[in-house]
């Protein structure tokens, strides 16, 4: 008695699957939960008027954010400044100020976990 072609090919396929090592057999994938993004950092807005700089930083999150104002002056002889860190607690707004002698080149605020 002869086997039909479909039965013979199915038998060969099953034999090949059974001969595969366990690691090569596909397994059901389990999705690992993605951690929620960490909510941190005060929202800061800066204003430059002439040679004076003012920054307001509001922290809407429950962790304290230590913010610091950095001012880079435009002239090579005008020394820029890095302000001391100020603690902006939860639901708190802080005001930071700085200045140059002549023109302001760049302003930014840095954040540290407090």
Textual characterization of the structure:
By secondary structure, this protein is mainly β. The chain has one domain (1-113): Sandwich (Immunoglobulin-like), CATH 2.60.40. The protein is built from one helix and seven strands. The strands form two sheets. Strands 3, 4, 5 and 7 form a four-stranded antiparallel β-sheet that branches. A three-stranded antiparallel β-sheet has the order 1-2-6, with no helix packed on it. The model has no long low-confidence stretch (mean pLDDT 85).
Any descriptors?
1 helix; single chain; four-stranded antiparallel β-sheet; Immunoglobulin-like; three-stranded antiparallel β-sheet; mainly beta; 114 residues; 13% helix
What count of domains describes the coordinates? 1
Percent of sequence in beta strands:
35-45%
Give the proportion of residues in helices.
10-25%
Whole-number mean pLDDT: 85
- Secondary structure class reads mainly beta
Could you list the spans in which at least 5 consecutive residues all have pLDDT below 50?
none
Tell me the number of helical segments per DSSP (H or I, 4 or more residues long). Answer: 1
The strand count comes to 7
Specify the CATH architecture: Sandwich
CATH topology: Immunoglobulin-like
Strand/helix succession: HEEEEEEE
The gross shape turns out to be elongated
What is the gyration radius calculated from CA atoms? Answer: 32 Å
Describe the main β-sheet briefly: 4 strands, antiparallel
User: In the CATH hierarchy, what is the class?
Assistant: Mainly Beta
Q: State the separation between the terminal residues, measured CA to CA.
A: 83 Å
Protein name: Secreted protein
Keywords: Signal
Organism: Streptomyces doudnae
Signal peptide: 1-24
